[in-house]
TrEMBL record:
PANTHER family: GLYCEROL-3-PHOSPHATE REGULON REPRESSOR, HTH-TYPE TRANSCRIPTIONAL REGULATOR SRLR-RELATED. InterPro entries: Carb_Metab_HTH_regulators, DeoR-like_C, DeoR_HTH, NagB/RpiA_transferase-like, WH-like_DNA-bd_sf, WH_DNA-bd_sf. Gene3D superfamilies: 3.40.50.1360, Winged helix-like DNA-binding domain superfamily/Winged helix DNA-binding domain. This is DeoR family transcriptional regulator. Pfam families: DeoRC (PF00455), HTH_DeoR (PF08220). It comes from Oharaeibacter diazotrophicus. One of its GO terms (molecular function) is DNA-binding transcription factor activity. The lineage of its organism: Bacteria, Pseudomonadati, Pseudomonadota, Alphaproteobacteria, Hyphomicrobiales. Residues 33-88 form the HTH deoR-type domain.
Length: 280
C-alpha cells in the first residue's frame, strides 16, 4: 500500500491519498490549530477581508475549532473580527518610526489635502504623520486657524506667517505625540471648525473608523463632531483594516485622501456611503 499527501490549493484541503488493491480513497488530513491559523492568515493576505462562513468546511473541521482559531488570532493581534468576517489588524509603530515610512506618498497626500483647505478656514487637526504632511503643505500666503492636539503639527506650522495655532491641553501621549484625555476632549468641544483634518489608524466600510488607543479614539470622535466637514487622510494600506477602539462610522468622512485607489469593493462601498475619494 502506498500513502502520500496531495494539497488541493483551490479549496485549501489536505488529503491522504490511500491506494489499496481494491480502490483509491481520499481521506482529509486534520490540520493542527497552528497550521489552520497560518492558512487563514494566508487567505486573508490575498483577500483583505475574509468571510467566516465556510471556513469550517474549507478546512474540514468544526465551527467551534474555527471560532477558537479566530479568537487566538485576534488575541495575538493578527486579525480583527467584524460581523461575519475577519480583517487584517492595523499595526502602528511610534511616531518616530512612522514618520519615515512612505514619506513620498504622505507628502503627495499632504499636497492633495492642503489644496482642499480654503483661505481663512478654521481647522481641527488630528495627530499623525500624514496630518503633519498636510499642514506642512499649506501655502504660506493662506490665512488659517488651526486647533490641534499634535505637537508635530505645531512644529510644522511654527514658521507659517499667517497661521494662528491653538494647542489643546491634556495628557501627553508619547506614542502619538499628541494630547489626549478628558481635558483635551472638553477643549475640542469648545470649538466649531470648518474642517477636521483626520488621520486614520484604520478604516473599514463595515467596522467604521477605528483607532489603536482608547483616549485617541475619543479625541478623534470629538474632532469629527466639532467640524462642519471631515477630510480624512491615510495611506491606502489602512483601508479595510480595523483597530480595537471605535471612533465612528465611515460615513462620517466627507473626503478621503489617499495615495492609491482603494480595491474595487472598498471604492464601491465608500461611494455608497457618500465618501468622496481623492487619489494623490
Amino acid at each position: 500500500m502506498h500513502e502520500y499527501v496531495i494539497i488541493d490549493c483551490t479549496f485549501m484541503h489536505m488529503y491522504r491519498h490511500v491506494r489499496t488493491n481494491a480502490q483509491a480513497v481520499m481521506i482529509p488530513i486534520a490540520l493542527s490549530p497552528d497550521e489552520r491559523q497560518a492558512r487563514i492568515l494566508d487567505l486573508l493576505a490575498g483577500a483583505d477581508r475574509l468571510p467566516v462562513a465556510g471556513l469550517a468546511e474549507r478546512f474540514g473541521t468544526s465551527e467551534d475549532s474555527i471560532r477558537r482559531d479566530l479568537r487566538a488570532l485576534a488575541g495575538a493581534g493578527r486579525i480583527r473580527r467584524v460581523h461575519g468576517a475577519i480583517l487584517p489588524a492595523a499595526v502602528l509603530g511610534g511616531f518616530d518610526q512612522r514618520v519615515g515610512e512612505d514619506a513620498p506618498d504622505k507628502a503627495a497626500i499632504g499636497r492633495a489635502a492642503a489644496a482642499l483647505v480654503a483661505d481663512a478656514a478654521s481647522l481641527l487637526v488630528d495627530g499623525g504623520t500624514t496630518t503633519r504632511a498636510v499642514v506642512a503643505a499649506l501655502p504660506r500666503d493662506r490665512r488659517i486657524q488651526v486647533v490641534t492636539t499634535s505637537l508635530p503639527v505645531v512644529d510644522a506650522l511654527a514658521d507659517h506667517p499667517l497661521a494662528e495655532v491653538v494647542v489643546v491641553g491634556g495628557r501627553f501621549d508619547r506614542h502619538s505625540r499628541t494630547t489626549v484625555g478628558a481635558e483635551a476632549v472638553a477643549a475640542i468641544r469648545g470649538f466649531r471648525a470648518d474642517v477636521c483634518l483626520l488621520g486614520l489608524c484604520a478604516v473599514d466600510t463595515a467596522a467604521g473608523i477605528t483607532a489603536v488607543g482608547y483616549e485617541e479614539a475619543a479625541v478623534k470622535r470629538a474632532m469629527i463632531e466639532a467640524a462642519a466637514r471631515v477630510v480624512a487622510v491615510t495611506t491606502a494600506d489602512k483601508i479595510g483594516t480595523v483597530s480595537p477602539n471605535v471612533v465612528g462610522p465611515a460615513a462620517a468622512i466627507d473626503v478621503l485622501v489617499t495615495d492609491r485607489a482603494p480595491a474595487a469593493a472598498d471604492a464601491e462601498a465608500l461611494a455608497a456611503l457618500g465618501v468622496a475619494v481623492v487619489v494623490a
